[in-house]
Amino acid sequence: MKTKLFLTFIAGLFSLNSFAQKSTQEMAVYAEKKGNDYYLIRLAEGVEVPKVYVYSNGLIKPYKNYTELKEIVMDFPGMMTSNNSTKEELVSVMKKDNHFYEITSQRKDPKNFEKTTITVYEVVNNQKRIVEEYGSLIELMPTPYKDAIFIDIKK
Length: 155
Hints:
By secondary structure, the protein is of the alpha+beta class. The protein has helices spanning 2-21, 69-75, 78-82, 137-140, and strands spanning 25-34, 37-44, 51-56, 59-64, 89-96, 99-107, 116-124, 127-134, 150-152.
């Protein structure tokens, strides 16, 4: 239930962004690293069940086609605990100009989504270096890193 409420809140933010942008997008809501692969969970506009992608060897491909949210939570149980966590959680990854970035979020107050810090790390040789830190998702919006959170869907 908490995951569903969290995704509903994210959908509200998503609606604000897509209204401003007038384009079809997906929003990154959670990511998980398993081995060398990253599993990216994204909420598409007007869809209740997020899409899951795998980032492997520099390419992002659809992972599985889920029909229910509980199926995703079964495969990625960390998604449930990230809702009420104050620890840093992976949200998305991005490759831009031969640089690879991990984008994380950390809630200062698990009950208040607005008190979230977004951190962008550059990853080189399995070592992370902080590139930027933002006090909210709103602060991230005018930066090039927003493309890791709000992903344009090509039709």
